[in-house]
Design brief:
The protein has about 230 residues and is mainly α. Helices cover about 50% and strands about 5% of the residues. The protein has one domain. It has a two-stranded antiparallel ribbon.
Length: about 230
């Protein structure tokens, strides 16, 4: 079995793990609450995208680690086909708009809030059982709560479509292997996108760390290319 070639960007995921672990420790051992960071980071969504979900959220980190464990244990993995994903991923936005109209209970979908309270040993209800179930489900599929249920991620995601910085793909260097799409925990079709503006992108940069040709990088949105008029003879 051949080893996967390292493209030199593996340090990004090491750094992300350290940040996630540090935030998790702060939530468990201090009165630190991630909702304060989420409010502070909200204005940055317009500039950088939804980094809170990919780097800070303890529930997101727990799902990532559960997915890693599931792969190590060789558990069966469910990957929703792109044709179906484009419809299923709309569910969290539907829930978000329902919450805005007070159509159903707000508490159930406060995943990160419940998870942080559970870690501190101060909360145990149906909501807590629900989000822990999402972590167990993450053993078999990537970030189920984030993909289809998280209303906080939906709110930030809607703002992030206006981002100035994001993941750019060098279409000329890209070999079309599709590894970036397969690695994305939010099941975004990165391999066919010049600039990732997808509202579900959590800025985890796993696609950048995976690309064997280094044709993905984080940078400013490219200027629109104007079509040159044909020269008259």
């Amino acid at each position: 079995m051949s080893r996967k070639k390292n493209n030199g960007y593996g340090w990004i995921q090491v750094l992300r793990f350290i940040v996630q672990l540090s935030i998790l420790a702060a939530v468990v051992f201090t009165i630190f609450h991630t909702k304060h960071i989420s409010k502070w980071m909200l204005p940055t969504v317009l500039l950088l995208g939804v980094f809170f979900c990919g780097w800070v959220c303890p529930l997101g980190a727990a799902q990532d680690w559960a997915a890693w464990l599931g792969k190590k244990l060789r558990l069966p993995r469910l990957r929703v086909p792109q044709g179906l994903q484009q419809y299923l991923q709309l569910s969290r936005y539907v829930f978000y708009f329902l919450l805005l109209t007070y159509a159903f209970s707000f508490e159930l979908l406060k995943g990160p809030h419940h998870f942080g309270a559970i870690l501190r040993g101060t909360f145990y209800t149906a909501g807590g059982i629900f989000v822990l179930g999402m972590v167990v489900l993450a053993l078999f599929t990537d970030r189920p709560f984030c993909n289809y249920l998280c209303t906080g991620g939906a709110r930030m995601g809607l703002l992030s479509v206006l981002r100035i910085f994001g993941i750019r793909r060098n279409t000329e260097a890209c070999g079309g292997c599709g590894q970036c799409t397969r690695k994305c925990p939010m099941n975004i079709d990165v391999a066919t996108t010049d600039f990732v503006r997808h509202p579900n992108c959590i800025g985890c940069l796993q696609c950048v760390s995976t690309c064997p040709k280094k044709c993905l990088r984080y940078g400013i949105m490219p200027a629109p290319q104007s079509k040159k008029a044909p020269k008259k003879s």
